[in-house]
Amino acid sequence: IFYYAPKMVESWKGQKLLSRAEFHVGAHITKFLRLQMLPTQVLFEKTNRFALLFGNLDGGIGCIAPVDELTFRRLQSLQRKLVDAVPHLCGLNPRSFRQFHSNGKAHRPGPDNIIDFEHLAQYEMLSVEEQLDIAQQIGTTRSQILSNLSDVSLGTSFL
């Protein structure tokens, strides 16, 4: 993921994009498509947020979408807790799966800057008692987490 920072020296006055994060998707991406996200919470809210829809060589479709800072922190804490609380599919750690592997080149931080909603969807499949316990451990409420997950689903409902 790159970002535009014209005031930073490394960007040569905005002529070069700077790397923000690198992560493993699971297959080679062949196409990106930028789509405007739908408004969340308030029905008539104007939004200027865009998500990237991508397709890969394995026939998979994915999406990269922005979330606000407070939601990111809450869901990041939930993601870290779920790595320990939920048994992994085939014994594979979702955190190490998203870790970027390079061929000797230096790389930026990866999985900590990205929230994996595929992994977070497991929260809704837990029992209510487990959901309440995990929400309490990360310092929030079950309803707030479910609201955040719903908002992201609504914002990317163009899929």
Automatic annotation (TrEMBL):
Concerning Pfam families, the annotation shows: CPSF_A (PF03178)
Q: Which GO terms describe its cellular component?
A: nucleus
Domain named RSE1/DDB1/CPSF1 C-terminal: residues: 1-124
At the top level of its lineage, which domain of life is listed? Eukaryota
GO molecular function (one): nucleic acid binding
Cross-referenced PANTHER family, in alphabetical order? DNA REPAIR/RNA PROCESSING CPSF FAMILY
State the name under which the record lists this protein: RSE1/DDB1/CPSF1 C-terminal domain-containing protein
